[in-house]
User: Which sequence fits this backbone?
């Protein structure tokens, strides 16, 4: 029997028609997949996480195409999807996109390996050579730096101010200008914590903050002079400053005289509680103004902004929350065009004005801070020039240093906070002095877990300054 | 060897080849690679450093891993000792002779399985949420505004006088909440197995036992349990393996973290965090191998127990 006969026998006898169809489908689809070339549209590809940013960049992208002939294709992903695609591309060394606009919580992972394996192009020399270091708010660079090198162009500053229910405060005849510190804040606003509706709970709490609010914990920690990582990437969670700040802010959530309440920042229920005035004050980064404007229109004309009360007289009156950057993957085939477009987006006056008008975000480019757009009164914030208020505090935001274990650090901070709060509740403790040793112990214990991650990483030590 | 002797062997090899190719590519190769990764520290596939058994040593001293193991064991015990008895009880209720609408009940109990784990997790998060959760609102409306003597949680000293609406279930009782959420999902699923086993019990055995004067409890232990033992063992093994691989439920309920103080961290969640969030595939592989060894040990233990009982 010839080979041909054997194969024919196999087809006709051994395989059923169904098996033949499946085998044929597999064969055809395999051939199609293997022979179809990967189509890449000509121009720049931009991956990003924010649909709002994508809409905002559309006119600039069209203008860029008409001026340079290079089209820009923006693709929006959820943050986890964007992080997975980005890291998958970086790990495998394959082409991803020409530009990635990343958010702070997703970028740190890119810095976990040896410095030369970071998937983003090192922009340090370009930024220095083009004088951008002096044109951009210095603290806006630090989240995008690893081992002294800059891997992203900063998109924002994100200072934090205190948003408060001016209608309630002014109706009670309270003068907010007397407030300089958090102690003043508690004392001056204390008359608002009455139970007029008789439900056994104060009608208003003074601040929306709780021990499990991971982002707000970091905001207050940074304002109080604390940090999670230093410039060399070492974990500083157990520092005395952090312990003191943690003890102080947790005392606001404990005891019969607690003045904080947990209000969800994103849900309809949380928005309803804000409208009801359950809390008077809110920690408001600039981007949160845009969100309130669109999601809680009922509060128009009822809210005002002021610098954060300081932890001590003369102390810092702001903090920082969130942040984005534009990075160029090393595998981009259009690095120079990508760099030019990134600068066009992030450094232009038109985009800075649009960014502020649509989202409330102030640009990190210091030479644009004198733009009149930032002085326009905001009807939502009772006629205040919100842009100017944020810009006044922008130079004072604390520096935040990047770490591949940034998220682990945040979780460790929250763990410490919840441990201290639980221990305090079970023992009936509530003053900062009583909480300080608990805070120190919890932070030391939590730092161990972050240190363990850092110490196990053999790559980070290489090239550490 | 003659030509006629080699032909069947070649044909057999030809037919077996697809299996071996698929098995080799998707099982053997990843297993070997993960064993190699487990003795390396990695940053993606490009950068790897040989670290010997350091990953395993680090696991032994890793408090988060210990917490993940403890949580996973608690959940597994909950699955076996709470979920399965409830499933068996429901199956016995549905197996009552003359019960009308058995099919409808079976569909109702099984239906959470049709929704999928993600939706169950999202609904559970809404139910157990602190200030606005359905459970707390219901407790406040039925038991009163604050936790008082005689209430469910009054034995926790710090909770006296706390508002029901403020009780943080997902911070304080994460593992019990996960077990409750999984009851909803899996009780009906396991009930179907038990019901099928109960319906296959030889009725003459039950009748003979009753004629001999045995009551319901004696009939259960002497007839029902031995008859459904093979299915029961299979369900127990499936539950243990499934519980040890717990991931989606806490991942969604706790918003992609292990929850406060990692109280809801499980072994597979920790593996995922290490490998795909921290990028340390070596450490993740070591966790995977420890989990695999635990599963093998449990499966072997159960086989040993079953064989001993059979003898």
Assistant:
């Amino acid at each position: 029997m010839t080979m041909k006969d054997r194969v024919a026998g196999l087809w006709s006898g051994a395989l059923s028609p169904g098996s033949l169809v499946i085998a044929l489908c597999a064969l055809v689809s395999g051939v199609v997949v293997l022979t179809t070339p990967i189509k890449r549209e000509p121009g720049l590809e931009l991956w990003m996480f924010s649909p709002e940013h994508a809409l905002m960049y559309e006119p600039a992208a069209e203008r860029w195409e008409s001026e340079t002939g290079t089209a820009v294709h923006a693709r929006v992903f959820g943050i986890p999807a964007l992080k997975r695609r980005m890291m998958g591309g970086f790990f495998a060394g394959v082409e991803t996109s020409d530009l990635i606009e990343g958010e702070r919580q997703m970028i740190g992972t890119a810095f976990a390996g040896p410095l030369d394996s970071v998937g983003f192009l090192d922009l340090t020399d370009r930024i220095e050579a083009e004088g951008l270091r002096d044109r951009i708010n210095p603290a806006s660079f630090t989240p995008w730096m690893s081992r002294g090198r800059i891997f992203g162009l900063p998109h924002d500053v994100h200072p934090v101010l205190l948003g408060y229910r001016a209608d309630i405060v002014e109706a009670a005849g309270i003068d907010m200008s007397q407030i300089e510190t958090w102690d003043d804040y508690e004392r001056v606003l204390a008359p608002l914590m009455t139970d007029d509706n008789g439900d056994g709970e104060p009608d208003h709490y003074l601040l929306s903050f709780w021990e499990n609010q991971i982002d707000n914990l970091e905001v207050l920690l940074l304002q109080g002079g604390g940090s999670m990582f230093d410039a060399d990437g070492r974990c500083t969670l157990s520092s005395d400053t952090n312990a003191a700040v943690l003890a102080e802010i947790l005392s606001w959530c404990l005891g019969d005289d607690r003045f904080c309440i947990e209000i969800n920042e994103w849900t309809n229920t949380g928005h309803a509680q804000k409208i009801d005035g359950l809390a008077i004050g809110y920690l408001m980064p600039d981007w949160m103004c845009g969100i309130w404007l669109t999601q809680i229109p009922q509060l128009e004309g009822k809210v005002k902004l002021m610098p954060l009360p300081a932890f001590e007289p003369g102390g810092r009156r702001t903090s920082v929350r969130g942040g984005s950057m534009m990075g160029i993957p090393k595998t981009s085939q259009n690095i120079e065009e990508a760099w030019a477009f990134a600068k066009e987006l992030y450094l232009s006056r038109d985009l800075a004005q649009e960014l502020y008008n649509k989202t409330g975000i102030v640009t990190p480019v210091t030479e644009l801070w004198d733009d009149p757009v930032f002085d326009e009164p905001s009807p939502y914030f009772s006629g205040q020039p919100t842009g100017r208020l944020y810009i006044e505090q922008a130079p004072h935001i604390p520096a935040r240093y990047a770490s591949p274990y940034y998220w682990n650090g945040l979780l460790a901070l929250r763990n410490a906070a919840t441990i201290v709060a639980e221990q305090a509740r079970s023992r009936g403790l509530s003053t900062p002095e009583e909480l300080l040793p608990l805070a120190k112990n919890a932070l030391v214990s939590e730092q161990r877990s972050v240190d363990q991650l850092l110490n196990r990483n053999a790559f980070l030590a290489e090239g550490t300054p | 060897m003659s030509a006629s002797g080699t032909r069947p062997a070649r044909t057999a090899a030809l037919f077996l080849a697809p299996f071996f190719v698929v098995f080799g590519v998707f099982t053997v190769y990843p297993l070997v690679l993960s064993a190699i990764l487990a003795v390396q520290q990695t940053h993606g596939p490009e950068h790897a450093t040989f670290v010997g058994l350091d990953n395993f040593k680090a696991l032994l001293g890793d408090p988060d891993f210990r917490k993940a193991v403890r949580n996973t064991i608690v959940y597994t015990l909950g699955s076996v000792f709470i979920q399965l008895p409830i499933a068996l009880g429901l199956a016995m209720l549905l197996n009552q002779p003359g019960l009308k609408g058995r099919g409808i009940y079976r569909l109702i109990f099984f239906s959470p399985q049709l929704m999928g784990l993600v939706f169950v997790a999202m609904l559970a998060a809404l139910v157990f949420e602190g200030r606005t959760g359905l459970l707390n609102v219901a407790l406040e409306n039925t038991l009163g505004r604050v936790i008082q003597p005689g209430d469910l949680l009054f034995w926790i000293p710090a909770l006296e006088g706390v508002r029901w609406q403020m009780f943080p279930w997902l911070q304080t009782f994460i593992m019990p909440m996960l077990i409750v959420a999984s009851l909803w999902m899996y009780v009906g699923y396991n009930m179907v197995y038990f019901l099928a086993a109960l319906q296959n019990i030889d009725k003459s055995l039950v009748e003979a036992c009753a004629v001999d004067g045995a009551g319901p409890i004696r009939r259960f232990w002497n007839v029902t349990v031995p008859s459904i033992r093979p299915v029961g063992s299979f369900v127990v093994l499936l539950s243990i393996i499934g519980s040890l691989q717990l991931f989606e439920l806490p991942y969604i309920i706790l918003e992609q973290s292990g929850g406060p103080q990692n109280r809801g961290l499980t072994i597979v969640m920790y593996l995922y965090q290490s490998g795909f969030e921290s990028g340390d595939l070596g450490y993740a592989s070591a966790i995977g191998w420890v989990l695999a060894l635990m599963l093998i040990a449990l499966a072997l233990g159960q086989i040993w127990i079953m064989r001993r009982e059979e003898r």
Q: What stands out?
A: Chain B touches chain A through 38 residues (CB under 8 Å).
